[in-house]
Write a structure and sequence with these properties.
Blueprint lengths: L2 H18 L13 E6 L2 E5 L4 H11 L1 E3 L14 H7 L13 E5 L15 H4 E5 L6 E7 L16 H20 L6 H32 L6 H19 E5 L5 H13 L8 E8 L4 E11 L6 E12 L9 H20 L4
Parallel strand pairs: 3-6, 7-8
Antiparallel strand pairs: 1-2, 1-5, 4-6, 8-9, 9-10
């Protein structure tokens, strides 16, 4: 059996197992609003079905829910990230890796201002909401589906560790509002560094155990596990996620930094990067994405930076909790990084 037939056979077997257990069928995909933005005096149209369409919509329109316990019998679609890595599915959208709740559009009135952020008038404009589905996402679980998987001999409560990090972030933002924290940016970044390291380690060991089942090979040597975790963690902060403050980077230098990240690799391999710029003077969190687009004549690729959300910390409410927005954004970046990098090793 050649490798292509072998891969097809494995995929069919995986799908049959999911179907037998009641988890068969394709993941539901949604159609998000398309956008038009300005770049170098040109009008560029961003497809709502792109990764950025998902990121922008969920950062602005969807309520974030925090699950405080791991399901005893998780949906087998929690393994979707591993299947996409194994079959090198580069076109897979990030929405498949999160639990999403929907509401029938017939029972919900859409606000004309829905989907816009405080920066919409200067960065992009929502111009339609396609009627390709009668459902729209309303809630999303903060932590990715893959967290629900319990790996063999796993003794640590990974979800509890992640919630502890979430609570630490919440405490820091509350102290900032009371003017009793000295350097919020550095404290938040340290928590995020710890959070990212924990999630990557958790997913990598689950990935290795999943490969044992699929390939019947021993891939869980401690040395290779540690090397892989360290390598992916380093790539995450160098290529997939960037966080800077106004005290060290102007908005221009920050944007240039994102463009440099694009030049480090082939843009065809990845279509989005994540970045946060913190205006410490005005207490504003600016969530940005770097995306690659074809020019209008399709002659070349343009790398552009667009804002997915602007958040004024002093004006946040329960639906705009900065710790939830920040961790959801980071989780999206982690899943993009893992999807691109796990299958390389």
């Amino acid at each position: 059996m050649d490798i292509s037939n072998e891969v097809t056979a494995i995929e069919d077997e995986l799908n049959e197992k999911e179907h037998d257990l009641g988890f068969g069928g394709k993941n539901k995909s949604f159609r998000y609003p398309d956008f038009v933005c300005s770049h170098n005096s040109q009008r560029l149209y961003i497809d709502g079905s792109s990764k950025f369409g998902f990121v922008h919509y969920f950062m602005n329109n969807v309520k974030i829910v925090v699950k405080d316990e791991i399901s005893e019998c998780p949906d087998l679609k929690s393994f979707q990230i591993f299947k996409d890595c194994f079959f090198v599915n580069q076109n897979s959208n990030l929405e498949k890796y999160f639990d999403i709740e929907v509401l029938n559009k017939e029972n919900h009135k859409i606000d004309d201002n829905e989907g816009t952020s405080m920066l919409s008038d200067i960065t992009m404009t929502q111009f339609n909401f396609p009627d390709l589905t009668n459902e729209k996402p309303t809630h999303v679980q903060l932590f990715p589906k893959v967290i629900n998987i319990r790996y063999s001999s796993g003794k640590k409560n990974i979800l509890r560790l992640l919630i502890n990090h979430l609570n630490c972030l919440k405490s820091l933002f509350e102290k900032k509002n009371k003017q009793i924290v000295a350097n919020l940016f550095l404290d938040v970044k340290r928590i995020l560094q710890s959070y990212v390291e924990i999630v990557i380690k958790d997913v990598v060991i689950k990935w290795m155990q999943w490969l044992i089942i699929i390939q019947n090979k021993d891939l869980t040597k401690r040395s290779s596990y540690r090397i892989l975790c360290k390598r992916i963690n380093s790539l995450f902060w160098r290529r997939y996620f960037c966080m800077r403050s106004s005290s060290t980077d102007s908005i221009t230098s920050f944007s240039n930094r994102l463009h440099r990240n694009f030049r480090e690799q082939n843009v065809k391999e990845r279509s989005i990067i994540f970045a946060v710029w913190w205006d410490e003077v005005n207490d504003i969190l600016l969530f940005n994405n770097g995306i690659s687009m074809q020019t209008s004549d399709k002659s070349k690729e343009e790398n552009i930076v667009v804002a997915s959300l602007g958040l004024i910390l002093e004006d946040t409410d329960k639906n705009q909790e900065p710790e939830n927005k920040l961790l959801l954004f980071v989780n999206m970046a982690i899943m993009e990084c893992l999807k691109q990098e796990l299958n390389r090793y």
